Amino acid sequence: MPFTANRRFKSTPRLFVGAEGNYYLSSDGRRILDGMAGLWCVNAGHGHPRIREAIKAQVDGLDYVSCFQMAHPDAFTLASRMVGMLPAGLDHVFFSNSGSEAVDTALKIALAYHRQRGEGGRYRLIGRARGYHGMGFGGLSVAGISRHRRDFGPLLPGTAHLPHTLDLARNAFSRGEPDHGIELADDLERLVQIHDASTIAAVIVEPVAGSTGVLPPPKGYLKRLREICDKHGILLIFDEVISGFGRLGASCAAEAFGVIPDMITCAKGLTNGAVPMGATVVGKHIYDAFMTGPESAIELFHGYTYSGHPLACAAGLATLQVYEEEGLFERARTIASHWEQAAHALKGAPHVIDVRNIGLVAAIEFAPRPGGAGQRSAECAEASYQDGVLVRAGADLIVLSPPLTIEPDEIDRLFGSIRKSLNAIA
């Protein structure tokens, strides 16, 4: 099982047998409030009838067709719908099966783009400390969570990393974007001085670092990165697998922060988690760079058996329609203030040393127990689960990312359960 203590799980398994709206149904018959939207992905709530029916109808018609030298209409319709809701300039879509594949696709496109333009010496890829970009070798190489990388050797050569943006000394208990840290973007200039811009293909960052513990960007940080990339001809990639599709009250973080990258990777909320799907969205300048030579020539030697899978496209189209018709992005913006107040009400609770939030995502960080790093968060998560609330523990953190359909009383219940759990642990 992925990211699981397999032996412990099999001794005391946690099994779900159903889901509806903002709740799971456990195998012992309890309704569990989902504080994680599955795994950052079920933005419209579980079992939405429009999405469910779209998948059923699709499997009754066209169950599968390859997108190698053939296709089906919904793949193009979904790409057009995505482009229509994303910021102007991001206008071509390459479909994959996950966020990990979307990231590896973006990295490969970046390398091939520079080669197409006669700058094949740009091979270096720059990530960021504490970044998470999936589990493919490319994404893992630019990622910056040491425990994820440790067991798998040297990974891809030619990578470098910016520093992370967490600064508890200056920014603890910030609400939204922290005031301090814009200068950390200037470390990209230092990497240019070390490696020379002519060797750097792309920089990839999560606009809001998610899995590492919800690190919103310092004010002005993303804009500064964009300026430095433009200055040196470096592509900027936003990994929006988590932040896309309403999580920040907008179509994506690029829209929310007003900074447009050259590429966006997305997945998760694209299909509401109902069918696996990822996508890499690129700017016209990138697409056009490949559209040279004979029309009969393959422009990009890359792809997956399930790229643009009909069931995933059906789920994606229905999901985007639900977002629009039910105004879920706007709803997320509206309810975010209640979310923020409830999260920061935990300031002063036992063991809490920081609360971070932006949009409908938050993290509560604990002081580590002497000799027992990560124990408090694990115990808090377990106590909350026994109280009927599902949260995610990692390191000394509780991370929260509920469906965009969560109600104010459910927000209060979620944070109330965490407070109750904290009061019960040493």
Write up what this structure looks like.
This protein is of the alpha/beta class. It has 2 domains: 6-34 and 327-424, Aspartate Aminotransferase, domain 1; 52-325, Aspartate Aminotransferase, domain 2 (3-Layer(aba) Sandwich), CATH 3.40.640.10. It is built from 16 helices and 15 strands. The chain has helices at 6-11, 37-40, 49-61, 73-85, 99-116, 137-142, 146-149, 168-171, 187-195, 221-232, 253-257, 284-290, 310-325, 328-344, 375-386, 408-424, and strands at residues 16-20, 23-26, 31-34, 90-96, 124-128, 159-162, 200-205, 235-239, 263-266, 278-283, 352-358, 361-366, 389-390, 392-394, 397-400. A 7-stranded mixed β-sheet has the order 4-10-9-8-7-5-6, with helices on both faces. It has a 4-stranded mixed β-sheet with strand order 1-2-3-13. A 4-stranded antiparallel β-sheet has the order 11-12-15-14, with helices on one face. α3 (49-61) packs antiparallel against α13 and α14 (328-344) packs parallel to α16 (408-424). The longest helix is centred in the first third of the chain and has 18 residues, at 99-116. It is globular and about 65 Å long.
Main features:
four-stranded mixed β-sheet; seven-stranded mixed β-sheet; Aspartate Aminotransferase, domain 1; 38% helix; 426 residues; pyridoxal phosphate; 15 strands; Aspartate Aminotransferase, domain 2; globular; alpha/beta; Aminotrans_3_PPA_site
